[in-house]
Amino acid sequence: MQPLSTQERKKPTPVLLPSRWRRIGLWITGCMLLGGLLAVGAGAVWVSTLDISKLEHPLPEPTLIMDRNAQPASQLSSSRIEPVPLMQIPLELRNAVIAVEDRRFYEHSGVDLWSITRALWRDLRTGEMKEGGSTLTQQLAKNLFLQSDKTVSRKLKEAAYALKINMTYSKDEILELYLNSIYFGEGRWGVQGAAQEYFAKPVSQLNLVESALLAALPKAPTTYSPAKNKDKALERRNLVLSLMKEQQFITTAAYTQAIAKPIVLQQQNEESLKGKYPSYVDYVIEEAAELYGFTEEQILTSGLRIYTDLDPLVQQTTEEVYGLQSLFPESRTDQMIQSGAVIMDHRTGGIRALIGTRGPQIYRGFNHATQLRRQPGSSFKPLAVYGPALERGYSWSSALYDGKLDIGGYRPKDWDGQTRGQVTLKEAILRSWNIPAVWLLNEIGIEAGLDFVRRAGIPLTAADRSLSLALGGLSEGVSPLQMAQAYGGIANLGVMQKAHAILKITTKEGRTLVEAVPHSTVLTRPNVAYDLTLLLQEAVKSGTGTAAAIGRPAAGKTGTTQLPDTPEFSGIGANGAKDAWFVGFTPELTTAIWLGYDQTDRDHYLVTSGGAVPATLFNRIMSRVLRDVPVTPFPIPSASRNQPAAQASR
Asked: How far apart are CA 523 and CA 632, in angstroms?
C-alpha cells in the first residue's frame, strides 16, 4: 500500500448525521419557511382589509360668495384645507418636497425598507423611539388614519396603511393628497393655504425660493416657521435647495442664485376671505336653503359660486360704523345692547349690506337683522295708518283728533303726556303723536290698516286685529329685513320688490344651477307712495328724525317701544324703552335699524329712542355710502307731476 500524501492525510473525514437528526432539521426549516409564508400571507390579508375609503372622497371645496361686481367677497368651507390639483402645484415645489422628505418616493412601494432600517438602528442605539424613515405615503397615512403616538405598533400600522395606499393610488395621486393635507404652520394645512399665508399668492405662482421654503416646513412647522424664526427657516430652506441640487432637480447655478436670496414674506393686502361678512353670509346660507333647497353640507363642501347683491362699500362702511362704540349707549356688563341693520336697493330688492349682531361674530349665530321679531313702535304708523289713510283721500292738512280717547277700553297716550285737541296729519306724523294715529285708524277701519300691512309683506295673526296696530303693537313683531322691504315699496313709488341676497348659484366651472327671478307686488298707488315719501321727508327735516338728516333727500320714521306696563318696570315710566327703530330711505337705498337688549328686564332696558341712536347710525352710514353719488331728488310719478295728492284737502 502506498503511503498517503500530506494533503490526503489532512483531508477531513465527513461526519454523517443520523437520518433522525436530518429529518428534524428539515422539519424545522420547513416550519420556518411555512411560518414566514403564513406571516406574509396574514400580513397581506391584513393590509387588504384596511379601510382607506376616506381617501376616495374628494376634499371638500370651499364655496365662494361673490359680490354684486362678481368679485369674491367671502369664502365658506367645512374644511381647513383648500385643495388644488397636482398640475397647479409648481414642479419645483413637488421636487423640493420629494428631495427633503422622500427621495425614493417614485421607487419604493409606499414603505422604504432601507430608510426604516436606518431609523430603527438609530432608535436602538439611542434607546428612544423617534420619528424617521417615514415616506410621504406613511406620513399621509399617519395624518389621516392614526394617532401621533411613537410606538412600534403605530409604526407597523403606518407601514400597512402606506402599502394599501400605494396599491390603490398612483404616485402622482398620493403626492397630490399629501401636498393638500400636510400642515405648514401658522394654522395652515395644504400648499394653497400655506402659499396664501406666507406669500399672499396662489400656490401656482410660487418660484423656486418660495417653493423650497414651503418644503422646509412640514418636518417641524413651528420650529422652522419664517414668521417666528427667520434664521432657522433660512437654514432649513438652504438645506432643501442643497438636496435639490444633490438629486439633480436644479443646477448648480440655480442653487447658487437661490441660496443668496433672503426670505421675503408678503402679508396679504386684504384679510382672508374666509369668515368675511359673517351676518350677510349667514343669511345667504339661509336663503339658499329656504328658497332653492340646498343643504348646508352642499353649500359648505361643493365649491359653489353664489352671486349676491352684496356691495362691499356699503357692507364695509356699515361694519365700520357699527365698530364705533361711542355711537351706542353703554351696555350693562352682563349683556350687550344689540342691533341689526339691513340696507337694500328698493328698485331691485337686492340686499346691499346686512349687520346681524354687535360684538363677537358667531358662525350661524342669531341674526338680529333677519331672525329678530320685535314690535316696531311708531315706525309702523306709515304702514298701518297713514298709507291707507292717504289711499282714502286724506291729505297733509287733514284735521285729526288729539284729545282724551277711549275706544272700547283702549286708551292710548302721547309720548309727551299732552293733548292738543286737533292737529294736522302732517303734524301728527312729524311729532309721532299716538292719539291721532289711533283715532285715524279707527276712522278708516282696522281692516284698511290690516290690508295695507299685508300688502307690505308683514305677517299678521288674529291677535293683531286691534287698534294697537296703529302703534306697532304686533303680537309676533317684525324684523329689520321685513321693515326695509316694506318701506322699499314706499320709496319705489308703490312697487315693493321682494328682498333677496342671491342673484344666482353656479358650479365652480360656471354652470348655472339656480337663478333668482325678480318678484314684485303693488303696495299702493304711485301718487300715494310719493305723498307718503314727502311726509316722511318732512319727518327727517323737522320732525323726530332730524338726527338722520344727511344734507340730501332722505325720508324716514322713528319708532320706540315703551316698556311693558307691569310691576317689574314700575317707577321707570317713560324714561325707559324696550326697542328703538329707524327706518328710512334715500332715492337710492332703504335702511332699517333696530336697537335693544336680547333680554329686557328691570336691569336691561334702553334709555334712548329711535330718533337718537338708530337715526344717528342711519346718518353715519348713508352719508359715507352716498358721499360720491350725485344728489338726485325722489322720483315723481307721472300722475303727481302737476298736482301731488298730498296737497289736496279733505
From this structure: 23
Assess contact for 620 and 626: CB atoms under 8 A: no
Angstrom distance (rounded) from CA 520 to CA 141: 56
Quote the mean pLDDT of the chain.
86
H-assigned helices in 323-460: 381, 387-391, 425-431, 434-444, 446-455
Measured N-to-C along each axis, helices 434-444 and 446-455 cross at an angle, to the nearest 10 degrees, of 100
Say which of 181, 378, 379, 395 is annotated catalytic: 378
Is 101 a known active-site residue? yes
52: Cα separation from own chain's centroid: 31
Q: State the cell numbers at 364.
A: 350661524
Q: 407 - beta bridge partners?
A: 410
Give SS3 for 249.
Answer: coil
Region of residue 102 (left: phi > 0; alpha: psi -120 to 50; beta: else): beta
CA distance readout (Å), 567 to 253, 387, 410: 86, 36, 20
Query: pLDDT tens digits for 567-606?
Result: 888 888 777 899 999 999 999 999 999 999 999 988 898 9
Least confident of 21-30, 179-188, 477-486: 21-30
In this structure, what is the dihedral angle of CA atoms 322, 324, 326, 328, given to the nearest 10 degrees?
A: 10
**Domains of the chain (ranges plus CATH)?**
78-259 (1.10.3810.10), 351-647 (3.40.710.10)
Which of 82, 92, 101, 588 is catalytic? The answer is: 101
- Nearest in space to 418 (alpha carbons), one of 441, 442, 435, 406: 435
Q: Which of 491, 478, 490, 395 is nearest to 452 (CA)?
A: 490
- Which grid coordinates are listed for 341? 341693520
Cβ atoms within 10 Å of 506's Cβ, excluding its own: 16
Q: How far apart are CA 626 and CA 552, in angstroms?
A: 9
What is the CB neighbour count within 10 angstroms for residue 183?
Answer: 17
**Alpha helices (H) along 464-547:** 480-491, 526-542
Closest listed residue to residue 492, CA positions, set 551, 555, 573: 555
In the annotation, is 378 catalytic?
Answer: yes
How far apart CA 616 and CA 627 sit, in angstroms, is: 16
Of the candidates 527, 298, 263, 566, the one whose C-alpha atom is nearest the C-alpha of residue 395 is 527
What is the four-CA torsion angle of 452, 457, 463, 469, rounded to 10 degrees? -50
**SS3 per-residue string spanning 266-292:** CCCCCCCCECCCHHHHHHHHHHHHHHH
What does the alpha-carbon distance between residue 288 and residue 329 come to, in Å, rounded to a whole number? 35
Lowest mean pLDDT: which of 53-57, 184-188, 217-221, 320-324?
Answer: 53-57
Q: Which amino acid is at 446?
A: I
What is the band of 12 on the pLDDT scale with cuts at 50, 70, 90?
Answer: low
Return the pLDDT at 169. Answer: 87
At 514, give phi and psi (nearest 5°): -145, 155
172 contacts: CB under 8 Å, gap ≥ 6 = 86
pLDDT digits (tens, 9 = 90+) for 188-212: 789 998 998 899 999 999 999 999 9
Helix (H) / strand (E) element for 364: namely none
Q: Which of 585, 583, 559, 536 is closest to 425 using CA atoms?
A: 536
Contact 216, 100 (CB under 8 A): yes
Contact 174, 212 (CB under 8 A): no
Pair type for strands 338-344 and 590-596: antiparallel
* Other residues' Cβ atoms within 10 Å of the Cβ of residue 28: 10
CA distance 267 to 285: 30
